[in-house]
Each structure stands twice: as C-alpha cells, then as structure tokens.
Write a structure and sequence with these properties.
Elements: E1 7-9, E2 16-18, E3 22-27, E4 33-36, E5 44-49, H1 52-61, H2 63-68, H3 74-86
C-alpha cells in the first residue's frame, strides 16, 4: 500500500501541494510569528509556496495576516524572502 502524501494549501495561490514543497509559518503560544523550518513546532500554522510570486501576492492581499489572525511583522516577510532565495 503506497504511503499517504500530506497535502496543504498555499495561503496565496490557494493550490494544494505536498507539505514538503511549502514553507510553514506559525503563530506560537506566545503570539510571535516564526518560520517553522523543522515543520514540527506547535502553534497555528499557515503554508506558503516557495516562490517569489506567492510571497508578493501574500503581502499584497494580506493572506498570511488572515490565516494567522494577526498583523505580521515586516521582519517575517524579509525572513521568508531569504528562505525563498536559498531554495
């Protein structure tokens, strides 16, 4: 029996993709927003494609703000930009 593939939806483009192809951003219990690199931290999570287009759309439409129900600091978007460039 084949292994089940975990799919998640990108908050910007709304496409379902494999979990490993997305970046996870979480709002932890203290309320701080961090990029979850190990995809293991607990907290409210949202996923974003590893593309500049999705990041720009996310910033423009405030999709991440809605998904995590709070204002996202600019430093988080800068961190995401660096992660996408590394990929």
């Amino acid at each position: 029996m084949p292994k089940k593939v975990s799919l998640r939806m990108c908050v910007a483009c709304r496409q379902m993709k494999e979990k490993k192809d997305l970046i996870r951003i979480i709002k932890d219990v203290t309320g701080s927003i961090v990029v979850d690199e190990k995809v293991k931290q607990s907290g409210r999570g949202a996923y974003l494609c590893k593309s500049q287009d999705c990041l720009q759309k996310c910033i423009k439409t405030k999709a991440l703000n809605r998904a995590l129900s709070c204002d996202i600091p600019q430093s988080v978007f800068e961190n995401l930009k660096e992660k996408i460039i590394e990929e």
